Amino acid sequence: MDMSIAAMSVNMHQSQAMQDMGVAILKMAMDTTEVATEEMLEKLSVDPNLGAMVDIQA
């Protein structure tokens, strides 16, 4: 395996670029998941006044 320094440099930079892109995509996925989780928790939060008064008159 006889590679020139230039070829090794290109390969190294391509690998680094792919890794950087992968990290960026994972960060986007994490941000999206965080927002979705926050929205879901807001929708699931229960009104503290709900059920405080019950009308039992028929």
Write the topology of this structure.
Elements: H1 5-44
Rounded to an integer in angstroms, the radius of gyration calculated over CA atoms is 27 Å
Classify the helix fraction into a percent range: 55-70%
Q: Please tell me what the overall shape is.
A: rod-shaped
Say how many strands there are: 0
| Low-confidence regions | none
Figure out the total of helices: 1
What is the element string, with H for helices and E for strands?
Answer: H
Instruction: Give the mean pLDDT.
Output: 88
% residues in beta strands: under 5%
Query: In oligomeric terms, what are we looking at?
Result: single chain
Terminus-to-terminus distance = 89 Å
Class per helix and strand makeup: mainly alpha
- What kind of sheet is the major sheet? none
Question: Please, could you describe this protein's structure?
Answer:
- The protein has 58 residues and is mainly alpha-helical.
- The protein is built from 1 helix and no strands.
Annotation keywords:
single chain, 58 residues, mainly alpha, 1 helix, rod-shaped, YjfB_motility, Putative motility protein
Write a brief structural summary.
The chain has about 60 residues and is an all-alpha fold.
